[in-house]
C-alpha cells in the first residue's frame, strides 16, 4: 500500500505543493480548519455577492509562476484586472497609472484554489493540533481529539505562528517559524446604492489608517447589485485596534474612506468587517521552504519568501521539490 502525504492548510501554498506531488504520482490528503479553500485568497459570501476580503490581486514575476498563471487564464479561473488607480497622499488624490499587470480570480479570488482542489482529498473544518511520529509513520491529532494517519510525510502550509506548534517534532524548524512575525490587517466591505460618483477603482493610501481600497465590481467577472468597496487598514492601525468590535472598526474606517474618496458617501446599504490576524509576514525571507528531509517534515507558505501570492505558490513548489528529491 502507498502511504499518502499529509498537507495541513488548503491555501495557495498547500494546494501548490499538493499539485506538484500529485503530478509526481503521490497521493495527498489535505486538512484545513476553514470551511473552504483559499486561506487569504478566500472570498466571503455576503448579501452583496462574493467579496475578495483578503488578497486583492496578484502579480507574476517568476517565470514558473507566469506559466502557471497562463494555465489558470486558459482554464477560466483568472483574468487581468485593469483598474483606474489613484494615490492618496497629503490629503490629495491623484491618478496613479502604472505598467504593473494585475491578476484576479474569476468570478472571485477563491476560484483559483477551488479549481486546484478538483482531484484532491480534503478534510475541511478540521483544525490539526499536533503532528506526531509513530515507529514508522506520521499521525495528526485534531482539536476534537480524532487521530488521522498514517502518513509518510507531512507538509505544513499555514501561517508561521500556526506552523510553530505543529513543527514541535523538528525543533530547529519550529524555532525558525517562531521567529517570523506576521502582521494583522482589518478589512471591511461597504456596499452603496446608488454607486459612488468617482472614477476611482483602486487606491494606494499613504499616512492614513487606510492602506488600500478597491471597487470590487471593477474586477472582471463580478456582477454585483451594489457598488461594493473593500478597504484594508494598515498593519499598524490594525495592531492598535486588534480587539475593537467590528461595528466600531466599520465606523472608523468608513469615516476615513468618506474623507478621502472625493465624493458624497451616503450611509452604506451593507457593511461587514473581517480581521486577518496573520495577513502578511513583516519581512521577506529567502528560505523557499523549510525541510527536515530525514524526518519527512516540511513547511511552506508566503512567509518563507515574499509574503505575496506568488511567494506562497513558489514556496509550495519548493517544499514538494525538496520532498521528491529526498525520495529519489
UniProtKB/TrEMBL annotation:
Catalytic activity: 1,2-dihydro-beta-NADP + O2 + H(+) = H2O2 + NADP(+); 1,6-dihydro-beta-NADP + O2 + H(+) = H2O2 + NADP(+); 1,2-dihydro-beta-NAD + O2 + H(+) = H2O2 + NAD(+); 1,6-dihydro-beta-NAD + O2 + H(+) = H2O2 + NAD(+)
Binding-site residues for FAD, renumbered to this chain: 13, 32-33, 40, 56-57, 128, 302, 309
Cofactor(s) needed for function: FAD
Residues involved in substrate binding: 57-61, 96-98, 185, 308
EC number: 1.6.3.5
Superkingdom of origin organism: Bacteria
Sequence ranges assigned to domain Amine oxidase in this UniProt record: 109-324
SUPFAM superfamilies listed in its UniProt record: FAD/NAD(P)-binding domain (SSF51905)
Keyword annotations from UniProtKB, A to Z: FAD, Flavoprotein, NAD, NADP, Nucleotide-binding, Oxidoreductase
UniProt keyword Repressor, yes or no: no
InterPro entries cross-referenced by the UniProt entry: Amino_oxidase, Bac_renal, FAD/NAD-bd_sf
GO molecular function, one term: oxidoreductase activity, acting on NAD(P)H, oxygen as acceptor
Similarity remark: Belongs to the bacterial renalase family.
HAMAP family per record: Bact_renalase
Function: Catalyzes the oxidation of the 1,2-dihydro- and 1,6-dihydro- isomeric forms of beta-NAD(P) back to beta-NAD(P)+. May serve to protect primary metabolism dehydrogenases from inhibition by the 1,2-dihydro- and 1,6-dihydro-beta-NAD(P) isomers.
PANTHER family: FAD/NAD(P)-BINDING OXIDOREDUCTASE FAMILY PROTEIN, FAD_NAD(P)-BINDING OXIDOREDUCTASE FAMILY PROTEIN
Name listed for the protein in its UniProt record: Renalase
Species in which this protein is naturally found: Pseudomonas mosselii
Upper taxonomic lineage: Bacteria, Pseudomonadati, Pseudomonadota, Gammaproteobacteria, Pseudomonadales
Amino acid at each position: 500500500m502507498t502511504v499518502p502525504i499529509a498537507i495541513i492548510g488548503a491555501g495557495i501554498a498547500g494546494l501548490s505543493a499538493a499539485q506538484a506531488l500529485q503530478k509526481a504520482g503521490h497521493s495527498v490528503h489535505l486538512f484545513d480548519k476553514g470551511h473552504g479553500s483559499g486561506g487569504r485568497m478566500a472570498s466571503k459570501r455576503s448579501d452583496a455577492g462574493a467579496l475578495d476580503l483578503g488578497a486583492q490581486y496578484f502579480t507574476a514575476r517568476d517565470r514558473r509562476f507566469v506559466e502557471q498563471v497562463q494555465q489558470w487564464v486558459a482554464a477560466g479561473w483568472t483574468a487581468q484586472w485593469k483598474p483606474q488607480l489613484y494615490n492618496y497622499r497629503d490629503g490629495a488624490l491623484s491618478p496613479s497609472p502604472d505598467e504593473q499587470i494585475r491578476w484576479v480570480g474569476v468570478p472571485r479570488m477563491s476560484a483559483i484554489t477551488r479549481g486546484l482542489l478538483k482531484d484532491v482529498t480534503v478534510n475541511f473544518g478540521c483544525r490539526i493540533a499536533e503532528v506526531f511520529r509513530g515507529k514508522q509513520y506520521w499521525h495528526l491529532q485534531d482539536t476534537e481529539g480524532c487521530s488521522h494517519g498514517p502518513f509518510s510525510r507531512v507538509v505544513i502550509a499555514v501561517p508561521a505562528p500556526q506552523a510553530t506548534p505543529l513543527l514541535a517534532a523538528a525543533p530547529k524548524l519550529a524555532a525558525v517559524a517562531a521567529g517570523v512575525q506576521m502582521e494583522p490587517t482589518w478589512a471591511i466591505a461597504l456596499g452603496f446604492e446608488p454607486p459612488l460618483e468617482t472614477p476611482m477603482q483602486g487606491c494606494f493610501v499613504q499616512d492614513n489608517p487606510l492602506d488600500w481600497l478597491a471597487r470590487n465590481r471593477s474586477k472582471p467577472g463580478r456582477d454585483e447589485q451594489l457598488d461594493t468597496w473593500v478597504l484594508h487598514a494598515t498593519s499598524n492601525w490594525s495592531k492598535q485596534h486588534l480587539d475593537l468590535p467590528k461595528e466600531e472598526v466599520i465606523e472608523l474606517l468608513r469615516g476615513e474612506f468618506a474623507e478621502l474618496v472625493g465624493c458624497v458617501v451616503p450611509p452604506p446599504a451593507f457593511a461587514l468587517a473581517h480581521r486577518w490576524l496573520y495577513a502578511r509576514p513583516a519581512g521577506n525571507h529567502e528560505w523557499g521552504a523549510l525541510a527536515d528531509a530525514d524526518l519527512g517534515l516540511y513547511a511552506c507558505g508566503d512567509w518563507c519568501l515574499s509574503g505575496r501570492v506568488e511567494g506562497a505558490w513558489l514556496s509550495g513548489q519548493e517544499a514538494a521539490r525538496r520532498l521528491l528529491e529526498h525520495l529519489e
